Amino acid sequence: MPYIIVLLLFFLSALYLEWKFRIHLYKTQRERVVISILFFLVGVIWDTYAVASKQWIFPGKGLIGWKIGLLPLEEYLFFLIVPFWILTVYKILDKKFR
């Protein structure tokens, strides 16, 4: 399955869960943007270093082929979507077990 499809499924499932369980991850829009940028920057710096030092590669299979710098487009989306999904699931579980 192409990486972009997996990311899309994560994103759509997080949106659905956020709506279904009526959770709000952030108090303000500003908080949402700042936290997303922080996750994004840390991920991009980390992966760019790993790729540049040949500790990590993206062989191309399952990727759409668009690169920005050393990283494929999907990896940039990963840094925005996966933390959103993880925080959403965490909030649901936290709400359930409190």
UniProtKB/TrEMBL annotation:
It comes from the Bacteria. GO terms for biological process: carotenoid biosynthetic process. GO terms for cellular component: membrane. One of its GO terms (molecular function) is intramolecular lyase activity. The chain crosses the membrane at residues 33-52, 73-93. Pathway: Carotenoid biosynthesis. It is found in: Membrane. It is a multi-pass membrane protein. Residues 3-93 form the Lycopene cyclase domain. Keywords: Carotenoid biosynthesis, Isomerase, Membrane, Transmembrane, Transmembrane helix. The keyword NAD does not apply. This is Lycopene cyclase domain-containing protein.
